[in-house]
């Protein structure tokens, strides 16, 4: 397989893995990016690994998009996906407070047990429902505080329904993997 060479990064493909509570929209986000279609019904299980190329900075990078199942009982399956991941997309839905809280309580710990070095982007999914995030008590200050406390490499919002922000999520995932950070600090995007 052709190798990418970009500044500080050389690899055969970039593995991007979505994690977060069941129902936050991980599968929808991945399917929307990979196929440009909005998936129809609720998909409780996982989307097959999807191989694609992502353009960043004038280079084409091979990437593998990996879905995980957020429900309890799928721990073993999730742990298989974690070790080779280059960038985790830690997803919460803007209309579900528990999914937001669980990024700190559950998901960052879950991935760091297995993978201490991968990049982490916090993704607020279902951004078309953003008005509801205030009703459920998730403020921008809360989100930025959490992003900092879990030492994430960035924060983005997207909607699989409107497609807003979807392409940006995957470009940023490549960027944080291939670009060497100038300083060791959290970047809020
Ligand atoms: N309004 C809105 N609803 C969405 C969006 N993305 C997903 N949904 C809804 O959320 C439901 C769950 O989405 P999934 O993508 O299956 O969630 P998941 O995180 O993969 O769930 P698990 O597979 O259980 O871990 C879908 O059936 C959609 O109805 C979005 O961007 N906006």
UniProtKB/TrEMBL annotation:
It is a lipid-anchor. Its main location: membrane. One of its GO terms (molecular function) is GTP binding. It is found in: Cell membrane. GO terms for biological process: ameboidal-type cell migration; cellular process involved in reproduction in multicellular organism; developmental process involved in reproduction; hemocyte migration; melanization defense response; small GTPase-mediated signal transduction. Belongs to the small GTPase superfamily. Rho family. This is Ras family.
